[in-house]
Design brief:
Structural class: alpha+beta
Number of helices: 9
Order of helices and strands: HHEEEEEEEEEEEEHHHHHHH
Strand content: 15-25%
Helix content: 40-55%
């Protein structure tokens, strides 16, 4: 008997509601100047596809509108204060997320009607979607991306009804996404608060939810940034290897290949765009150029080091080699016998003029050839040290540029 009366009360109440609500058009007595209060709440960012400039997110939409004349007294209907209907039973606003590429999943929509103020609540649960976002990876891996989720009217214009963000009498801040059930992403941090901008375009209202996500840089710093810096330091240290080692060129070629692989990894992560190429990518490219230049300098210095003893260095170069100013700056290696070698060569030249007949021609020629070879070797070493110190300062400047700009 109780069950039959409950069904009867519910049927009578449904007939009462159908008198005010229809399936295809907004109700005539809609309150707040035909306004529907809607908001989007983000539950989770599931994936961020930087290469395709796409974001996969899970969210839900909730809308509320009021028909004050639809109120009823629960005592008249067996104590029923709330009714729940399936989607399509009564009119719901034709709003949705704009610029969505794929809706991966969408749950059922339910309509809740409350007795006390004629409130009609429409909740779209568990919408998992993929939408586009313009990525700016200039500061990769310390970048932050700003994306917009737009909720808008589709078919009916704002002449039929308006949409607005819930005001404070609904218990919400009028300019922020609630984020009541948000779950943090392992790689991206959602910057709070998520602000809401309301506007109108072509007689259709919309709401823009401005989402800013900040990348956690630890992973890419360990995997990409610090290896690139270490490779650059190793390329710089190659200038200080002895010329006789014979492994400088192969060592630098190995570093060059490692830097190219590093750049290819960056290219697989970031969008294929020329508008905002990452500063770190420029840093890696400069490393490749510098390592290539290192190989070029190594070839030059090796050729200088093994220069023929038949060609003595020019006079200006000799003055530079024996300059104590370069010795103080550290641009020439500290060789103990360089002054002795110079005096020895000078003495041999004097002896060759004064007592040429008493000096063994073969010994004299051998001594002079050794001195010339030593001068060429010292010049090659000086060039190596000069570019080594230059690369240290260039590396510091590059790292500062990448870190701060």
């Amino acid at each position: 008997m109780f069950s039959n009366s409950s069904v009867m009360y519910e049927r009578n109440l449904q007939e009462h509601i159908e008198h005010f609500l229809s399936q295809r058009s907004p109700p005539r007595g809609m309150g707040f100047n035909k306004t529907v209060f809607c908001y989007v709440d983000l539950e989770q960012i599931l994936d961020v596809e930087e290469k395709s400039s796409l974001i996969v997110a899970k969210l839900f939409i909730s809308c509320v509108y009021y028909v004050p004349e639809m109120q009823w007294n629960p005592d008249d209907y067996g104590g029923i204060s709330t009714l729940i209907f399936k989607e399509g039973t009564f009119w719901a606003p034709d709003i949705d997320i704009d610029k969505v590429l794929v809706k991966i999943f969408q749950g059922l929509n339910n309509i809740y009607i409350h007795y006390d103020n004629g409130e009609v609540v429409i909740i779209k649960t568990s919408i998992t979607m993929k939408f586009g976002c313009k990525f700016d990876v200039t500061k990769f891996p310390n970048d932050a991306q700003e994306c917009v989720i737009r909720l808008r009217q589709w078919h009916l214009s704002n002449n039929e009804y308006r949409i607005a963000f819930p005001n404070q009498h609904l218990g919400m801040n009028a300019s922020r996404m609630p984020l009541n059930h948000y779950t943090e992403h392992e790689q991206w941090v959602l910057k709070r608060p998520v602000t809401v901008a309301v506007g109108e375009s072509h007689n259709h209202d919309y709401q823009n939810y401005i989402i800013t996500i900040v990348r956690k840089p630890v992973f890419y710093s360990i995997v990409l940034v610090w290896p690139a810096i270490i490779l650059y330091v190793m390329a710089t240290l190659s200038f200080f290897l002895p010329l006789e080692s014979g492994e400088k060129i192969s060592f630098n070629i190995t570093i060059l290949l490692a830097q190219i692989v590093n750049l290819m990894v960056v290219a697989q992560i970031i969008p294929s765009s020329s508008e905002n190429f990452p500063t770190f990518g420029i840093f890696v490219f400069c490393n490749i150029v510098f390592v290539g230049f290192t190989i070029f300098i190594s070839v030059i210095t090796l050729n200088i080091s093994y220069q023929s003893s038949n060609h003595s260095p020019p006079y200006c170069l000799k003055r530079l080699l024996y300059s104590r100013f370069l010795l103080v700056l550290g641009l020439r290696p500290m060789t103990k016998n360089i002054d002795d070698t110079r005096n020895q060569k000078h003495g041999l030249e004097i002896l060759s003029k004064v007592s040429f007949e008493k000096i063994d021609d073969i010994l004299k020629k051998s001594k002079i050839e050794d001195i010339v070879k030593e001068e060429w070797r010292l010049f090659a070493t000086m060039v190596n040290h000069f570019f080594g110190i230059t690369f240290v300062f260039v590396g510091i400047a590059l790292y500062t540029f990448v870190y701060y700009f």
